């Protein structure tokens, strides 16, 4: 006691600190495994939690600096003089009117045709709404009618730069347009063609032409067909919309809508929401496993140092000092993993920022680390480590000094249900020892199984999004859109246009496309939508639900998407009020015949005759064609120069672009999650094997002395891991399926609903990851098993 009294409190702390570092070094294998698991958890947390404020901040700053519109409205045609009346509406801060038309484009180096959205732009002033930011070149000159600027995404995807030229069909006339600039706009942060699943920058882009040139090209001199508004901060959006709709009703208004219905804004907002959800859930799995590993290692360390703890208590070291000591042992690998993980997370965040910039075109897209996110990650990681130490520290506190200096009482061996079961008689002696070892420590076996199951679940969650998108692709392009070529008319056409298409080279079948913009209401709920007419006997465009079942339109009512029904709070059998937004703007009360649980959008369908009654006539928007593959190129060449054709799309091109987007966007994520799952599985399996080896070293060494071979002893040790892994497979499948179902619900939106589906390859990959991790861990532990000192182990005190 004299020696201890001479040691002051700081000296004791220094001594315990040195001991902590020595213990970590002696347990460097498990400590490295803990550090790596923590590193992955922190990296995913830092990456995703950094991206959410990065995207949201970039979005808000860009919207504000570029005066992003609050409202949009399309009309048939309105005079320029009407703009002054619209600006005078209370709450309107700024207004821009423009000509907006779809055009067919011929792009250098691109096989087939592209579609463009051409917008007019004033040449003698800056836009007051949705300002352009020039990335390269300049804006159009007033005196040059054939100059255009193009969107950055379209330019990048096609390798276009100022000085290049594009072929275009403007109002039925072939023109050669010169690209003089590349620009960004907040209106098209993501350039998605209406009706498409994902952006296809190769085949869809935005163009701006001088206002006078655009008006002349489309026969709208002194007129416009689209307007955008920004509002005062105190303005009522609903009141302004009502005032605008009232003034524009006689000009064929399709209804004013706000940011919530603007396609680019919705895609970006949904992406931010999904990133926030994923960035919270994924790190929790890894940090939870890290806490389990810390508990596993510390519990074994406390048991191994039982006599040391007793001696330290006898010499006056308090429980508080011991608690801090073992917490320090836990925090050393955890904080080391957190520091490395922070660096990896910041690097990965930069990679994600670059990936996001390919789809979301914003000027200040450069990633900047946030100290708050880094601090939060270190805090959460430290808490997970302390949670993992609770069980082990509780044993330290409860252990009296005198009792601690005696060897730990061995586990009680007695007959249990296994020894009396039929299974016991059918297993070999080696297998019986394996099962008994698991049953003697059920808590450890359960936690190890859960950890392995989580590694399986991580792979399944990572692959789920890919599986879901693959199903959506198959349903959309195989079951719903079955045409070879889709044609959009510049103006509404009748049966004559269909007959003309039917006589073009290679056309085997023609079916019309007809949609009617409407305002649909039920009680206090009201939405803008479009009713699509279904032609009797249609084979190229159908209505199919998520289970690939075709659904027919009720004879006297509407077929409604279940997503739209939820927004309107209606069910099958209810009636809704429908107002057409074109023609005579007729109002009808129509019953909902049935609902369809589709995957994309908020659709609405009715029969051809009912549509004709509501619209007051027939007016087709386009057509879909079945085409002889041999004559496809000849047909496309003719359609390109056909007056009245606004856009042409080939199904094969759309599919190829879609697959390319999937590879680019999901490839990085899938590889990262597979790597994370391998790390998780190796960490759990390796630490479980190390602890098992430590606890059973005397038993295994005794078997070696009794004549068992090295291979037999190793089979006994790793057999337990194999059984735990086998038990983890169905549990991992269940957890993975549950997380995938939660992901499907959390990531679904009005734009699309992810189907709950898991491909067989996903299950296979998850098992492969666990098997590979188990084999790698077994090799590492086998080396320690082969180098056990038999004499030293057998000299251990009883």
Layout of helices and strands:
Layout: H1 2-6, H2 9-26, H3 28-65, E1 71-79, H4 82-87, E2 92-98, E3 100-106, E4 114-121, E5 133-137, E6 147-151, H5 152-158, E7 165-170, E8 173-184, E9 204-210, H6 211-217, E10 223-231, H7 237-248, E11 257-258, H8 263-304, H9 306-314, H10 319-357, H11 371-398, H12 401-404, H13 422-426, H14 429-440, H15 442-480, E12 485-493, H16 495-502, E13 507-513, E14 515-522, E15 525-534, E16 558-561, H17 562-568, E17 575-580, E18 587-596, E19 604-607, H18 608-615, E20 620-627, H19 632-640, E21 645-650, H20 651-705, H21 710-747, H22 760-786, H23 790-794
Parallel strand pairs: 4-9, 6-8, 15-19, 16-18
Antiparallel strand pairs: 1-10, 1-11, 2-10, 3-4, 3-7, 5-8, 6-9, 7-8, 12-20, 12-21, 13-20, 14-15, 14-17, 16-19, 17-18
Question: Which bin fits the share of residues in helices?
Answer: 40-55%
Computed over alpha carbons, the radius of gyration is 34 Å
Strand content: 15-25%
Question: How many helical stretches?
Answer: 23
Instruction: Assign the structural class, choosing from mainly alpha, mainly beta, alpha/beta, alpha+beta, or little secondary structure.
Output: alpha+beta
Unreliable stretches covering 5 or more consecutive residues: 1-8
In what order do the strands lie side by side in the largest sheet?
3-4-9-6-8-7
Q: Distance between the terminal alpha carbons, to the nearest Å?
A: 28 Å
Largest sheet descriptor: 6 strands, mixed, barrel
Mean pLDDT: 81
Counting copies of identical and different chains, the oligomeric state is single chain
